[in-house]
Amino acid sequence: MCGRFTLTDDLLILQEMFEFEYAGEYTPRYNIAPGQPILAVGSNGKRRKGNMLKWGLIPYWAKDEKIGYKMINARAETIDEKPSFKHAFKKQRCLILADGFYEWKKTDKGKQPYRFIMKNRKPFAFAGLWETWRKGDKPVHSCTIITTEANDIMKDVHHRMPVILPMETHDLWLDPNYDDTRHLKSLLVPYPAEKMEKYPVSTIVNSAKNESPDCIVPLNSL
User: Which residues are annotated as catalytic?
Assistant: First the structure.
């Protein structure tokens, strides 16, 4: 699964790398948690636009928006079958920007958090889906992160990982007019482990209330 991640890069760097327009507020984040607004990039087929979406997808047909807390992740293997996700999978795909994510490893001393990043230290994009829920007082725009089997660098920590999309697949993934679900599903595979690295971090990340650069400092450097 993916339950916490980071996005600490400068907005201009993100816009240059992922080629999107954005007019909202942006603050570097060190411990992003479910239910919070996260930066996602979508496309109308002509241009890309960034928006802050609530993390935890609320299907358009849901009676209660609280269902979103159960929808922070979508399994790649069944994404074209589950009623909660198959509608968005066809037409409402997005990139969810990050530069690292956390996962916890069970040890004799308790759960040890690790941060996973790219070896080149660059930001990257999770495969995401978005929805708009209109049954409340005002529309709620929400999203979910797609997960797949763990790669070799993840396996000893957790059996699942978020889908990280290579740059060359972004245009196709974002194209709202492309609905070959079999091909799209083939993109939802583990990211090459040799391009990633991990390191242990402080257990301060266990609490979503802790939001500071200390969250991403390697444990042996504290």
Answer: 2, 103
